[in-house]
Automatic annotation (TrEMBL):
Species annotation: Nocardioides aquiterrae
Gene3D superfamilies: dinb family like domain (1.20.120.450)
Native organism taxonomy: Bacteria, Bacillati, Actinomycetota, Actinomycetes, Propionibacteriales
Protein name, as recorded: DinB family protein
SUPFAM superfamilies referenced in this protein's UniProt entry, alphabetically: DinB/YfiT-like putative metalloenzymes
Record-linked InterPro entries: DinB/YfiT-like, MST-like
Length: 164
């Protein structure tokens, strides 16, 4: 199986962890796919009042992964992992953000997240979250929900961008 293959269909009878990780992986691919075939201008195009753009969604996904794995699970600070304190700031695109640079950062971040998570069992607690302790299982379930929601937003934006 390659890094870019969908995994949920191959884990129909897998363990709970295999299934959760497969759905996380598949949603990560959906987030990356938002940028497929878009120009730099299209990836940055704002069609809604918020900062939500295809490139912004992928950049926000970097933030989300770092919050849950690098900060909440591994106990590193937001400053240490290079993310803003406020979630709304994670949508802000810098001049140097490109389709390829943000894609590469997301792939690096999710590889690091997988490495961090590998050291924990599903019932192990993430002790460094503002909500208080929560399990790795909860993080996976939440990440599936959040990535799927943002992928849906991105699908609508892509459809509008490519139709114009």
């Amino acid at each position: 199986m390659t890094h870019d293959e969908y995994r949920s269909e191959s884990t129909l009878v897998g363990t709970e962890r295999q299934q959760l990780e497969a759905f996380v992986h598949d949603n990560r691919l959906e987030i990356l796919g938002l940028l497929d075939g878009l120009t730099e201008e299209q990836a940055r195009r704002r069609l809604v009042p918020s900062l939500t753009t295809p490139l912004g969604i992928v950049k926000h996904a970097v933030f989300v992964e770092k919050v849950w794995f690098h900060v909440s699970l591994a106990g590193r600070s937001r400053a240490e992992v290079g993310i803003p304190d406020a979630a709304e700031d994670s949508w802000v695109l810098a001049d140097g953000d490109t389709v390829e640079s943000v894609r590469a950062e997301y792939r690096r971040t999710w590889a690091e997240a997988d490495e961090i998570a590998a050291a924990f069992a599903l019932d192990d607690l993430a002790e460094h979250n503002r909500r208080g302790p929560l399990t790795l299982r909860w993080i996976y379930a939440h990440l599936i929900e959040e990535l799927a929601r943002h992928a849906g937003h991105g699908d609508i934006l892509r459809e509008q961008i490519l139709a114009s």
